Amino acid sequence: MIYRLFYSVLKVYITFCLHLFFKKIKVYGQNNIPKKGPILFLANHQNALLDALLIVTKNRRKTYFVARADVFRKKWVKQLLAYLYMMPIYRIRDGRETLKLNEYIFDQCGEVLVGGECLVVFPEGNHSLKRRLRSLSKGFTRIIKVAYIKKPDLGLKIIPVGLNYTQHQHYRSSASIYFGEPIALNDWEQTHEEWNVPMLKNLVSERLKNLTVHIEDEAQYDQISILLNEQRVDYLDPFSTNKVIKKIVVGKNSKTNVKDGKSMLRRMVALPISINNAVPLLIWRTINRSIKDPVMVGTMKFAVGITVFPILYLVQTVLVTAISNWQYGMAYLLVSIVTLPLLREVELSDNGYFHNL
To answer: N or C: which terminus of the chain carries fewer CB neighbours within 10 A?
Structure first.
């Protein structure tokens, strides 16, 4: 009972923080999610843990998900993530000897589906900031096999999920989530007489390419990205953006000429916001220097935002209340929360200590 209450409260808090972190979160296709029965969410993977958090908080089902094993190294972190229904998945970089541990994880994932719950898997097997779907690994098909061995009449639904971001690493950027039409695996098996892993991978891949902005030509990726930025496409709308991509002809000297005319305003806004949030911003700057994987920037920024900032505001509210009275303390707290979105201007300011926040 206490465990469920803890999870429910934490989910509400994470949802609230996600709406502070992102300027907009657009969600489509929630009606494609069955109210009961096992579901395997298969999503593209561009923004580390934020991808999983968006899927988990934007559907009403109890949802488990797998994450890279290296984040489970500390015992207390492993316990906390277990409370959040997270399970580790091991990769070759974690050591070849750890790969045998995946057999246990696949079995646990199968149990989740047999129990009629939902599971999130990122079938690309890794993450990348590039707006393209990479080749899918066969790990998710192994989970499906395990589940069907345990329960042949499982009736599993596969739901492809497309995740799109205006800017992956920046605070107050925007995101869109597209829950695609479910693939009823029993129906699929009836259509194809024998289990065909490549065919299933291709089917899921094509669905995902349709639900996310996908630049197929990797050799011309940078040039196409520049042209898309010049045309100011809506990255939250993969359908219209993918049509633009198909029409693009890459030139030899394509370069962006988009100018930002708000730099002076940003410098003016950034100074008072930086002063009020100096401590957490300095902590973030220290953490940011140690991040080796660029894909983790957005996730780590969110993690600092939901931990360090609340603690700072609580301490400062207590101090203001002690020095003056509780009305001024509450006023300070309210002003701090209301001005949180303006940290976006600190992040984009091209003049100041917190440049490239």
So the answer is: N
